[in-house]
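Researcher: I'm comparing several assemblies side by side, and this is the next one on my list. It has 453 residues spread over two chains. Same procedure as the others: predict the full complex and return the structure.
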Amino acid sequence: MEAEWAARPDAMVNAGSDAEREFGELAQAASRLAFRVAWSVVRERGDAEEIAQEALLRAYRHFPRLRDRARFEAWLVRVAWRLAMDHVRAARRRERREIETGRQMALAATSRESREFRFALAEEIERLPRKLRMVLILAAVEGYDVAEIARFAGVPEGTVKSRLFLARKRLSERLEWIADDTRAR
Amino acid sequence: MDCRRYKSALSDAAAGPLEAEQQRALDEHLTNCPACAARLARLKRAMIAIDRALAESAEAEPSDKFLTSVGARCNVPLPIDRGLSCPHLSARTVGAAAAVLAMVAGAWMSRARLTGPGVSPKNVAPPFQAAHLHAPGQSPAEKLVPRVLSARAEPSFASAPSVRRRIARRGTVAASQPFFERVKVVPGEQAAMFQLYALLRSGKVKPQALFPPGRDLDKPLKIAPLRIKPISIPPIEISRISNASRDPSPDAGRTTFPRTDTNKETTP
C-alpha cells in the first residue's frame, strides 16, 4: 500500500515546490489524526497505519487541487475514513466467504457481537450526512473542541454543537438494538 | 397515551440534557408509560456504548515507526533555513510573512488597547516599539521587530488564507481586528523579517516572548507557514544591433537565453 511513498523516500524531503513544502508541514501535523480515524473503524494498529499512509499518499497526490488548505484536516479525515470503510467491508466479505466455505472457526459469541457492534457503528457513522459525520469524527475521535472544529469546517460554534448533538442522537436511535436484551441472538 | 409525541424527546434526552420544561413534560409521561421509560433506558445504554467505542479511538496511538516514517518524509527544511539570500522573493512572499507577523502583533495590539480605555486604534502606539523592547539585553528577535514593522507601508494579504476568508465573508477586513492595517513590513527590511520568522519557526524564540512582560496570552500563538513562490523570469532577448547589419538572416542577430527559473507551474 505504501509502495509508492516508500519507493520514493526522498520525495518529500527534496521537494522543490511550495505546495510540497506546505503539504509536508500539514501532513506531519495531521498524521496522528489520520491514524486515529482509520483505527476507529478497523481497530487494528497495523491496518490503521497502512490506511493512514495510504490516505496521506492520496492527499499528497491531490494536494495541488485542494483550494482551501486551511481545511486539510477535514479533507484528510474524509479520505482516511473512506479507505478504512473500504478496508473493513472487504475484510467482512472475505470473512463471510470463509465462514460459508467452512474455512474459519466460529468466533466466540462475545467477540462476534463486539465486532458486529463496531462494524455497525462505523456503518451508521458512514450513513450520517457528511456535515454531521465530519463533526462527530473530529470531536469524538480526535478530541478537537468545538472552536477548533468550527474553524476547520468554517461554521459558527453553535452549528458545530447542534451537529454534534444531532449526530449522537441519530446514532443512538439507529443503534438502539445493541442495548436490547431481548433481541434474537 | 400518545407516545409518538415523545419519540423525538426520548432520543434528545439520551443524547443530552433537555430544556427544563421539556424535561418536566417527559418525566411526567415516563411515570405513566413503562414502555417509553424502557426505550429511554435502551437509548441511554446505546449512547454510552457508542461514546465508549468512539472514545477508544481518541486514545489509540500509532507506533513510533509510523510517526518517524511520516515525519522523515515530511521534514522539509524551510527555504529560510538555507540562507537569507533567497533569489525568489516577491511582493507576495513579503505579504505572506507580513501576515504571519501581523498575527503576532495583532494579539499584542488587542492587549494594548485594553490598557487605555477610550484610546482609539489610530492613537495606539505602533506595536513592538514599547520601551522595554529597546532596553539593554533585549533578545535578537526583539531587536528585529521594530525594524520589520511600521505603520506606513501596506502589505498584501492575498496569500494568507485566513485573512482572505475573513475578507470574503464580511466584505472587508474584520472591524474587530484593525491591527491588520497597522502592522507593516518596512520596504528594505525583508531580510530582518525573514530572520525574525526563522527565529520564531525554529522555536528559538517563543512568540509570547515578543510581548510586553506580564501580559499572558489566552492561547498559544501559532506561526503560520511561510510560502515562498519562485518568480517567473521571462526569456531575455539581446539584439545585437551592431552585428545584425552584417547577417541578413532575421534570427541571426538575436541571442535568446532560456528561462532560468525553476518554477514547475510556470515552465511549460
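Model: For your comparison table: The radius of gyration of chain B is 30 Å.
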